[in-house]
Amino acid sequence: MLYDSCDDPVWKPKRKEMLLSSSDSETDCSNKRKRKRRKPSKNKQIKKNKTVSITNKSVNETNAKINDIGKEILRSAENREAPSNISKYHIYEEQIPFEKEVILEEQSRSETVPPAQPHIDQNNELEREQSEAETQTIVDRQQIHSEKANDMETTQEPKKPRKRNPSDWERNKQKALRMQGKKYKGMTKIDGHYKFTVERPERVMKERKCSRKCQNCSSIGEEERRSIFNQFWNNMDWDQKKVYILTLVDVKGCKQRKQDEDVSRRSRSLVYHFKRNHERIPVCKSMFLLTFGIGEKTVYTWIDNANIGIPKPPTKRQIQSRAPEKVTFANDYLKQLPKMPSHYCRSSTSKQYLEPTFNSFCELYNEYVEKSKQCNKPFLSRKTFTEVFESQNLSLFSPKKDQCDICCGFETKNISEETYAKHLEMKLAARTAKEKDKERALVEDNLKVIVFDLQALLLSPLLKASSMYYKTKLGCHNFTVFDLCTKDVTCYFWHEAEGDLTANAFASCVTDYVDNLDERIEEVIMYSDGCTYQNRNAVLANALLKVSHDKKIRIVQKILEKGHTQMEVDSVHSVIERKLHNKPIYSPQNYVDIMKACRPSKPYTVRYLTHDFFKDFTSLNYYQSIRPGSKAGDPTVTDLRVLRYLPDGTIGYKLHHDGDEFLEFPRRAKLRSPADDDAVGSLYQQRIEIKAVKYAHLQELKRVIPGDYHPFYDSLPHT
């Protein structure tokens, strides 16, 4: 804010302090930016100088405006009136970033408004309207920036390593233009560097300059010459041009010499021809060169480099063959690294992912180099090692399908506008429905709205020791439930010796959470992503239908739009990952302890599960399928958006969040209704055996694990 109340007796000192503090803060910020900037290279010095001059000019103009406005404010203060033509946000409208505009707007709301003057004229009224209009402009900018930020969060793709594309190189672009006879830029050396700065004109057919003695040339008209020129430059590549010229030029010996053979430089004679109706017509050299638009030196060079009438291939630098032993060792090194399938897209990709022991590809390559030196083996360059890595269909990180395929396809013009518009409508409908349900939960005590998701795979043990890179480790899983109203968090944690990732495992966690709800809850609304084996299958549907029948509550399951499944539970996983950073993990119990300490004010409820917790819901054959259609072309399971489970034993569905009425599944889908005596047995009768190789690796890793944790790994069942 530029001015305070005119009735304040210390108004002038305040104004000076504000100006001084503003200039000091700007100086500090500029100094910080200078310390972070890299020293520009010589090639960018000219561009930098231009940028600095423009920046200095902008700063000088801004300072001049501030001084002028300050003088007018001081003069107005002496007359005990606010300046007449100064707007509250005038100098900040273009000179400061958007974030400072929002801060100024919030400060202006908290500050006291100057008391009204006894005399109000039309000028003051216009000032007030102008100030309100500018305030609304700032609010509009805030909305635009927030919308852009949201779009960037949902549509931004993860950067992939670039691959060489020679067709995009400037050298090859200019070469292609030159071979097509078009206008191009030649290369010249400037300040020790070659640059494409020399303008070269396009090839054109020139006027004939042959004498009247050329009888054959006089029979060739301009239209025929134009046809020859266009066919040569438009319908042939560079090698075809060479062959075509060689078929039209005959090399013959000299008929007579006027000088001695030792002195004469003439060793041959060239006879030029045109083709007409598959016949060759001799023409003079001038007519030949001017019609094709080429030079005499070009023809001589092509003839000298020809081999029996065929142009020689260009000589290229011989590529050194890679030593087979280097590639073999790199392949063996990558094969022995522990791998795991993708958690998010097992059905859509066969790519294998290294366990998250490497933070970057650089760290992986450095470990490969160290391993090669230890074994006294030669190692590949990083570029070649990357090619070997990609040839094995490997990746460093597990893919999280947060990127929307439809949005990315629309940006690359592979998705129609109609499909994209329908996708955006579905996304907006899902988000709107979640916000409405969240507002309902805040005012209705008998309603519970939750979101749940499975965290990415966790490994135990997880240390920085080099031996961890080559050993398989114990997989751990965390299924998290988040209450949108109370912000309560419940984590169901287990490792692979106690349970697996199946529909029964997830159904056991969800039904256990609903069973432990307060008796006053009459309706539960749950949101999740559309993972079929986890959230959208007949096993989970039958399990929720049984819970609805037993507790006499209504359960509504809603599926978010694919690619836009951001939920509040993701923040819980983010907090856990930050707490795990650089923390040694010796056993799964360490994960449980860290999760409990993630939020001291309102700790997470963490349940460490064993094999007897999981139930087998496959025996509940109420509905054999939740596919809404019955024939080809009908909607499938992936088209479901809302499922409703009622105590009377019926399941309704919607294909859109905005739909009013629930539809019923086909008759063949439902086999029977739930009964009070329906029993659910245990999924596992004993702990799950891990592979013998993994058990052996865990035993080898005990040398980097404290002895207190050794009994846990010794007790793991294995084949």
Quick tags:
alpha+beta; 719 residues; three-stranded antiparallel β-sheet
Describe the overall structure.
The structure is a single chain. By secondary structure, the protein is of the alpha+beta class. The strands form six sheets. Strands 11, 12, 13, 14, 15, 16, 17, 19, 20 and 21 form a ten-stranded mixed sheet that branches. Strand 20 (651-654) and strand 21 (663-664) form a beta hairpin. Helix 17 (503-515) packs parallel to helix 19. The longest helix has 34 residues, at 45-78. It is elongated and about 120 Å long. Mean pLDDT is 78; it is low at 1-37, 80-122 and 151-158.
Q: What's this model, at a glance?
A:
By secondary structure, the chain is an alpha+beta fold. It contains 23 helices and 22 strands.
Unreliable stretches: 1-37, 80-122, 151-158
Secondary-structure-based class equals alpha+beta
Which word captures the global form? elongated
State the share of residues found in helices, binned by percent. Answer: 40-55%
Average pLDDT level: 78
Estimate what percentage of residues fall within beta strands: 5-15%
- What's the total count of β strands? 22
CA distance, first residue to last residue: 73 Å
Furnish the topology, listing elements before pairings.
Layout: H1 11-36, H2 45-78, H3 92-95, H4 98-110, H5 122-155, H6 170-179, E1 184-190, E2 193-200, H7 215-218, H8 222-234, H9 238-248, E3 249-252, E4 269-276, E5 279-283, H10 285-292, H11 296-304, E6 306-307, E7 310-311, H12 324-335, E8 339-341, E9 352-354, H13 361-374, H14 382-391, E10 394-395, H15 405-411, H16 417-443, E11 447-454, E12 458-460, E13 474-483, E14 489-495, H17 503-515, E15 523-528, H18 532-535, H19 538-551, E16 554-559, H20 569-580, H21 588-596, E17 605-608, E18 615-616, E19 642-645, E20 651-654, E21 663-664, E22 681-682, H22 692-700, H23 710-714
